[in-house]
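REQUEST
  id: r-88c1
  op: predict_structure
  target: Thiamin pyrophosphokinase thiamin-binding domain-containing protein
  payload:
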Amino acid sequence: LPLPSSPRGRGAGAVTARRPGPLLALLCAVLHASASRGIAVQHKSLGRPRCMSAVEPREGAMVQWISRVLPPSGRSALILLNTPQPVAVVAALWDRFDLRICADGAANRLQEALPALAPELIVGDLDSASPGALEHFQERGSAVLDLSHSQDSTDLDKAFIAAAERGFHDAVVIGDFAGGAGRVDHMFGIIQSLFLAQQGPTAFSEVTCLSQSSMMKLLLPGSHVLPGLRGAKCGLVPISGPCEQITTRGLQWNLKGDAVAFGGLVSTSNLCVEDKVTVENSAPVLWTMKLGSEDEE
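RESPONSE
  id: r-88c1
  status: 200
  body:
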């Protein structure tokens, strides 16, 4: 995945190419390794897989999900959070998505870091996006969706809803989700948004969260084939409650039908030892993987 010198975006101007840092080089290696893998996603409530290269489950068989770090190009949404952004990664991945959304104050971040790029949508209650940023992007063709009347959902929830209403069901969320700006409550709010986005008739098939140094995905019950990164630290967290049975392959400390729960066993600080990781889980768990090297910590 080459780093583009002028990513596609509304408005004139080019983004100066930067030499890929360790994180971007590492991410590109993972993308390259997973590019040929298909995706099979089957929600129990839907009856048939949403995406290509689907694996048809037998009656009563475990649902199988074959994932990659990013969804395939086309009909995929990019959502930027109002947190510090890995600018080189955003610039490199911008063209991959058909729909780019700034969640409220993310518009300020994008204008400051990559003013030549313009999202299709700026969504939220608009209490963070500056008038200057809104005007800047509206002049470049961006639509602004003021959803301040709905205070029972977060800006990320609103972004997911806007994407689903436009027919998008694969998304990548970029931002500092790991307790950014000292707000651990925001981190849990993001995880809650992942749960909501992957439920109901407009459920997202694939959602990946990327930060400067980590990625995370919510693994719904079933069998998951994940692109690993040999040597990367990783974890499986029973974030929604006990998971009575979980089995893994491709980790240094594999789980073998174990029960995981807070107050009991939780698999953190594990290690990918293969380029593919398999997880079979009876309840939702959060998969996390570090993307940076040790000297970035």
